[in-house]
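Translate structure to sequence.
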């Protein structure tokens, strides 16, 4: 069943910002990855927040988003965030989160459109 529900997408001009949220519906938060998908393509990995206990995390980013996107979490709310800045048209996609490496049981995703 769906483990995560994403929100926060929208239409933004190039150079703009958006903050996406991803709520895990059951169980502890653990490690979470963000992915994105454009029509006709497979899910593309964007970023991960890897959990090593309650207080230690390791962040990883795909090269094209490093320096522009920041992943964070609020364990009390079982939520992971993706702060996106300096958005580019090529960031347009539906964004999803999932357990890292799990490519099934996708949530509804949230559409991000970067266009002038």
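Result:
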């Amino acid at each position: 069943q769906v483990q995560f529900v994403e929100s926060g997408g929208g239409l933004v001009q190039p150079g703009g910002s958006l903050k996406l949220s991803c709520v895990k519906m059951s169980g502890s938060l653990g490690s979470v990855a963000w992915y994105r998908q454009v029509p006709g393509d497979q899910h593309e990995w964007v970023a991960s927040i890897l959990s090593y206990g309650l207080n230690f995390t390791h962040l990883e980013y795909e090269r094209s988003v490093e320096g522009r996107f920041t992943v964070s979490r609020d364990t009390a709310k079982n939520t992971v965030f993706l702060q996106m800045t300096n958005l580019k048209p090529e960031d347009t996609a539906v964004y999803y989160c999932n357990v890292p490496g799990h490519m099934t049981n996708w949530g509804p995703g949230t559409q991000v459109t970067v266009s002038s």
